[in-house]
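hey so i finally got around to running both of the ones u sent me last week. sorry it took forever, my laptop kept dying halfway thru and i had to restart like 3 times lol. anyway pasting them below in the order u listed, first the sequence line then the structure token line for each. didnt double check formatting much so if smth looks off just lmk and ill redo it

first one:
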Amino acid sequence: MTKVCIFGSREFTDFNILDNKVNECLSEWGLSNVVIVSGMARGVDLLGVQYAKKYGLKVIPRPANWSLGKRAGYIRNEVMANEAEYFIGFSVADSKGTASMIKLVWLRQKPLKIFKFDKVIVENDKQVKTVVFEEFVKRES
């Protein structure tokens, strides 16, 4: 089983976009037998868990141990960067945690695809529109 990490901004909540983009990536990479590695934070991480449930995939949860203090998120990201083999990121504006994860994966020279969004429009506590700002591949296998 190939380990795929789906990570990104806590502000991103559009499951339909994530569903489509993850399917696109898995198809491009020729992956079918996958397990999802998740940091278990709200937003993209939990959407990755929802994606896994939709397709009957196993999830490897890697939540941050916040008793370690502010470095907990970075430590969790290092664990995921070492463990997973492929990475799909969703970033809204300037997400520091997402940027940290991108850097960790890039340094390990693992396949990484990023979808950047400049803003998320929310009305009545429901995300109604996600504006795609940029889409790029950092590294292919």
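and the second one:
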Amino acid sequence: MPVIIYSHDWFNGIDSLFEIFTVLVSLAIASVGYKAYRLTREKRHAYFSLAFALISLSFLSKILAELLVRYELSQKIIQMANIYHIGGGGFLAYMGFMFAGLLTLLILSLRIHDPKIVILMILFLGVFEYFSYTYLFGIFPLISLFMLGIITSSYYKNYSEKKLVTPLLTWLSFFLFTASQLFFMLATVDSKWYVVAHLIQLVAFCGLLYLLIRVLRK
């Protein structure tokens, strides 16, 4: 099982607040996407809604696991077995839901319709999740970085063709979300990058929230 990364003591708890904000924004986007699907019956809205619902579950799993681990650490008698199982289970759920959400966005962005390709991608992600959980924590942000990079490039292509504010904000938000994964990778070496990664990720989801508000106002 990988070691759970905590940053400096002063940031403990603040990261969870950032992630609660991320969960709320993701759920709001999922809700609006689902409403759009019910109105239009276009599958792309359903996929978009599903993707952000999975991403919200991913962060929620991480938040709950970290809170439970901190609770266990605050006890007079620390049960390391409990910490091991809670931390490992939470991290596994975090990876699984995040990979599923990013895969859904990837399928949507690349317009993949062949079910055989989708199944193959799921199998590869399952293998990567196993190795991330068992051996190398750094594989998870690396794969997330790769997947988000492809998704972000498709949003940039959309912006370059339309030259509108909404595609620009979408691209910038996903670009920052992608960049945050690079710093999460660096956090496996030096915990100070964990703070930087969270700040960048927070700005990315602030951008998505602003984008959502713009869409709702129209």
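quick thing i noticed on the 2nd:
Helices lie at 14-40, 43-74, 80-110, 115-134, 139-162, 165-186, 192-217.
anyway thats it, ttyl
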